[in-house]
């Protein structure tokens, strides 16, 4: 079973692995969305993404970096 938009923390962990040198506070949501869609384990409808979903992923990413 792949990652879905609701899997914010798991997506954040996958992004940390894929982009270890990126500061999540500096990423644009357009880039964040593209990076999520590019994850091999991501398997959800791209149309179901919104700003709130991306904010949740970004917040989880920042929490995991601390």
From TrEMBL:
What Pfam families does the annotation carry? Fe-S_assembly
Instruction: Mention one GO molecular function.
Output: ferrous iron binding
For the biological process aspect of GO, one term held by this record is: iron-sulfur cluster assembly
The protein's matches in InterPro entries, at most eight in alphabetical order, are given as: ISC_FeS_clus_asmbl_IscsX, IscX-like_sf
Which SUPFAM superfamilies does the entry link to? IscX-like
Gene Ontology CC annotations of this record:
cytosol
Read off the Gene3D superfamilies from this record.
IscX-like (1.10.10.600)
Which PANTHER family does UniProt cross-reference here?
A: PROTEIN ISCX
> What is the name of this protein?
Fe-S assembly protein IscX
Task: Name its species.
Answer: Photobacterium galatheae
Lineage, top ranks? Bacteria, Pseudomonadati, Pseudomonadota, Gammaproteobacteria, Vibrionales
């Amino acid at each position: 079973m792949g990652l879905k938009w609701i899997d914010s923390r798991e997506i954040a962990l996958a992004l940390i692995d894929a982009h270890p040198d990126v500061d999540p506070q500096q990423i644009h949501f357009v880039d964040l969305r593209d990076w999520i869609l590019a994850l091999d384990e991501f398997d959800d409808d791209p149309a179901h993404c919104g700003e709130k979903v991306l904010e949740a992923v970004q917040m989880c990413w920042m929490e995991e970096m601390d």
